[in-house]
Each structure stands twice: as C-alpha cells, then as structure tokens.
Design a protein that fits this description.
The chain is 49% helix and 19% strand. It is globular. The longest helix has 15 residues, at 132-146. α1 (13-25) links the parallel β1 (4-9) and β2. The chain has two domains: 4-116, Response regulator (Rossmann fold, 3-Layer(aba) Sandwich), CATH 3.40.50; 132-170, Orthogonal Bundle (Arc Repressor Mutant, subunit A). The protein is an alpha/beta fold. Strands 2-1-3-6-7 form a five-stranded parallel beta sheet, with helices on both faces. A two-stranded antiparallel sheet has the order 4-5. The relative contact order is 0.11.
Length: 175
Amino acid sequence: MDGQSLLIVDDDKPFQQRLARAMEKRGFETVTADGVQDAAAKITQTAPAFAIVDMRLEDGNGLDVIEMLRRKRPDSRAIVLTGYGNIATAVNAVKLGAIDYLAKPADPDDILAALSRKPEDKAEPPENPMSADRVRWEHIQRVYELCDRNVSETARRLNMHRRTLQRILAKRAPR
C-alpha cells in the first residue's frame, strides 16, 4: 500500500482529518474533499487509486463520487462509509463500483482491510451484526428519508399509524 493515493470525501471535518492522519500512518498519500463538487474537481485533476466516501454529503450523494471515480479510473478501489446504512444503498454502491460498504465510525484497520482485500476474497462476516430491531429501524429511517421526512407519507407507505411512526422516530436507534 505504500505511497498509494487516497481520496477521503466527508463533510464531517474532524472525522475526515482524523481518518486522513490514520491512513497516512498506514502508508497512503491522502487528499481530502468536503463534498461532491470538491471531490469532482480532485478526481478530474488526478483520479486516486483508492477512495473512502461518505454516503450523505451536504451537497449531494456519495454514490455520485463513486460513479465519477469509476468513470475516470476504472481500476480504483472505493469504499462507502455511512451512518445511515441500509441494504438498498449498499447494493447500489456496489453496483456503481464500490468494493465495500462500512458503517461509521469505521476503524482505520477495518478500512485498510477493505481497501487491500483482493477482489476474489470475501469480507469476513461482522462480529456484531445488526439486531432485528436495528434492521427494522434502519428500514423505517430509509423510507422516511425517501419521503422527504414527511411523517404522514412515510406512515402510509409503511402501512402503520402516524402516531406509532412518530413514537418510533422520537426514540434512539436500537443497537
């Protein structure tokens, strides 16, 4: 991995900087971007060999960055980090060219393992998989976001009472 170029795209500046320092200690030459537009400019200038991209950015979707990178440099290896993980976006990220999809906050060693894994090797199953309650909560959050955070529309699509949905949304995410 020594001397490999790495683009880190995240709008959470403190997390971005900590991750950049951690990856530099592991031999990467890091470049950071705060959003889709910034990442597009850096990819156009010099497409990196590796990328770590946050799914939700202030100015767009991290999947757009994955797609741009794949068009500019097909052999690049990118992973998606997100605090809003769900199966549909993970599948979409892989279809667009991401090699892995990790939940935030991801450990730098897990990120390094994902970036350096050979394409034919399968990822290890998670030590602590999501509980059924967490999967349900993630699904509700995804539909809520797709409905532009409209509680009534989300409740209708999920076939549940609006007040029940409001109670679920008011609670913290299950572990």
